[in-house]
Amino acid sequence: MADPAISIVVPSHNRRDLLAALFAALAAQAPGTPAFEVIVVADGCRDDTVAWLGAQREDFVHRVIETPGRGPAFARNRGAELARGAILLFLDDDVMPSPGLVSAHAAMHRREAGTAVIGPYPPWPHPGEDIFRARIRASWLEHFAALRRPGHRFGFRDLLTGNLSIARSLWREMGGLDEAFARAREDHELGVRLIREGVPIRYCDEAFAWHHEHLTSSLRRAFQRASDEGRSDALLALKHPHLRRSLPVTRTAMVPRRRITRTLLLGRKGAVALRLNPVAIAALRALEKVGSRQRHRRLFNALHSLSYHRAAGEVLGGHWWKIFPDEAPTEPGLRIDLQQGLAAAEAALDRARPASVLVTCGDAEIARLPDVPGYEPWAGRHLRQALLERAKPARLLEALDGRDATTLPKLLEPAAPSFFHTAGFNAFVHENALQWARARNRT
Amino acid sequence: MSYAVLELDLADLPDRLDVDPRHDGAAILLRVAGRIAGQAILGLPLGDADAPLRDVLLAHADCTAWESWLAWRLGVPDDSPPRGAPVTGTIAICTRDRPDDLATCLEGLMQMAGEAPILVIDNAPRTDESRAVVARHPAVRYVVEPRPGLDNARNRAFAETSTDVVAFIDDDARPDRHWFAQLLAGFADSTVLAVTGLTLASELETEAQIAFQRIGGLSRGFRRREFDAGSCDPFFAWEAGVGANMAVRRSALDLVGPFDPALDAGSASLAGGDFDLFRRIIGHGYRIVYDPQALNWHRHRRTLDELAHQVFSYEAGAFAIVTKTLLKERNPSAATFAARWLRHHFAARLRERRAPALPEREVDYTRLQGRGAASGPGRYLRALRQVRHG
Predict the structure, then answer these.
(1) B261 and B331 housed in the same domain
(2) Nearest C-alpha of chain B: how many angstroms from A47?
């Protein structure tokens, strides 16, 4: 039998029912989908996943391997080693592909070889019963909304292995996932390397899937997850020193006031505090019930931070100095002048691909596009969106209109400049009141 | 004191602003290439009469208008959210003895782009005039709801229709051409149980109308927002929109319960039917989308007495809901809300009142809100009795 075009690798841990749903979704891929195989890596499964898989007879080839529960990074690597397809497609077991997903991934690779393709997998529409669930869902929706923007600048955090495809040859060249990142951030770490090597990252809206995260995430797991992330972020900071300025763990490492807290947390008190987690979770529920949302947020953040930093501290053995970040470079990598026109400025960015940019119009500074480690270099397609987000509005308008800043009437400033990109009802009420006050002062 | 109400497109402006000189200013809805972007409030006559109109407008515009204008100039597309499966909808107008307003509202609906089934619920009418107005439009259905109360009428609208969604507009409002289509487009998935839109003043002819618009009126701003339990305290769900401009999914009535007849206009509670439904939607883990592209125009109350009554009613309605939450739902968060309201909101109002350098206030908001809040619980209990005994 000829090798399939695509190998789908699914790591799974005790989730037979979700796997069954996933298999049904894969069996229902649209006609014309290239041939694919499915490799399920049963990672430390104690339910009847393996037996169930053995009994399945689908149109596609599927294979099962068992790994001893060493986490998804290890499992994905073993799955990828078995793959025969030219393209690897990683799906999580709680991700339900739409009928067009597999062919959409394949089409992106046909159009542009040597890329990493990410597809959206927003949460399945499900009522969020509590504040925590609703916030998780909102953050997922925001994540994918950002990816969809045409001027989005990809960063290492965008590389999620829940719905990712990559050429098998490229995967082998990169050495796959780093198995030291056993439970979290293994995908971010791959993202760091892909971006550093200049591998183009593409977002494919048609490679759509639903994420059944409401079945697999919970408040209790959130703190376990925070701990896994703290451990992995510390490893990430050690492995990729250039990345440190982008990681929350190194930002805290630099704050002197917190050093004492960190020392305390590493000791026995921290262990006691963690053991109180079930109590804390009950307290969170109680705070939510009485409608004390601010206290709820504060307690949640404190618990999250405790789990995160304690795990990071364990990796560093308390030697936080090991991950002190370098100073950010102050000199911009490229200066572009908008007087030459937007198209020329975009072309200049595409030629230079700088880490940071200073945008000017004549002598006036319009915006600074910063050097953020772990993000792809600035390109032409980022410029307009970045200007919209970062430029001083009045200066930008002058530059676009080609007017000389010195001759402009003072009039040309927004009525209340402090409300840019500020959502919320209070912002509207204040700005509205200011607008009315200004109009009435004039009469 | 009066302000002209205008609509201008920054991408397609006339040479000069044409305003009747009797006005003291203009409240201008700004669009950018058709899309609703923000507003500019102008005092007239303008100080610098020679400045180009676009500069004048931008100088008085809000930040959302600036953002949209710059995005359009840069050619950055709108951040349009993904659309879900299409839903079917009916437009419902709940009215009571205001035949002239109803006629204007229906005229406006007839001029809307696209076709939509329209249903008029005449709530305990005293005359036959509304029926006569509706009879002029053969395509519009007319139903009488004999039990007085806006929430009875709203529930009746669902009972009389079978579409996925019912969109409500007040009889003293008129829609923008794309109002209905925009509301329906907001139902992205089955967890979105309501979509609300932007409501602006259709006239600013009196002091009372201007005063109301100055504190925000019925508008919730020019930014699209999604409300859920993570981003919004259920007791602040009124920020999600107003009953004069909302579409509600039929399934909401099963999932979170129907409109409460012991609330809103026509009941002793005076207000809060929309807020109460929004509160339950968010409290049950579902979502509300506020989309300012779904625009309608509302004629605010013309006299200061009516404005004062409105301010009083809002607070009475809010505290009727607090009472309901405590008594019927046994939900302690209502007490937290009431305590916070006293400690923060009302205390700030009292401080404001004492401050000497105060912008003029046409009505005494502090006193009205205080009295309204105090009367809320009693009014709710009375409303409950009314519902029980008819």
Answers:
(1) no
(2) 32
Considering chain A, what is the average pLDDT of its residues? 88
> Best interface-test mutation with B: which of A136, A385, A436 has the largest number of B CBs within 10 A?
A436
Q: How many CB pairs under 8 A join A and B?
A: 173
Instruction: Write out chain B residues lying below 8 Å of A384, CB-based.
Output: 74-76
Q: Which of A385, A411, A436 sits opposite B55 (nearest CB)?
A: A411
For the segment B8-31, the average pLDDT, to the nearest whole number, is 94
Rounded to 10 degrees, what is the CA torsion of B4, B9, B12, B14?
10
Backbone angles phi, psi at B55, to 5 degrees: -65, -40
Partners of residue A342 in chain B, C-beta under 8 Å: 74
Query: CA end-to-end span of chain A, whole Å?
Result: 84
- In this structure, what DSSP letter does residue A200 have? -
Domain region containing B210: 89-298
Q: Are residues B355 and B244 in the same domain?
A: no
Within 8 A of A435 by CB-CB distance, chain B residues are 39-41, 60, 62
Low-confidence ranges of chain A (pLDDT < 70): 1, 256-270, 272-274, 404-417, 442-443
- pLDDT of A1: 55
Q: Residue B148 and residue B257: Cα distance in Å, rounded?
A: 20
Tell me which H or E stretch contains A304. helix A293-316
Residue B204 clears pLDDT 70, i.e. is over it: yes
Q: Check residue A181 and give its pLDDT.
A: 93
Say yes or no for a CB contact (<8 Å) between A439 and B79. Answer: no
Q: In which element (H, E) is residue A194 found?
A: helix A186-196
Give the H or E element holding residue A55: helix A49-55
CATH classification for the domain delimited by A6-217, as one of 3.90.550.10, 1.10.940.10, 3.40.630.30, 2.40.50.320: 3.90.550.10
DSSP line for B263-328? SSTTSTT-S-HHHHHHHHHHHTT-EEEEEEEEEEEE----SHHHHHHHHHHHHHHHHHHHHHHHHT
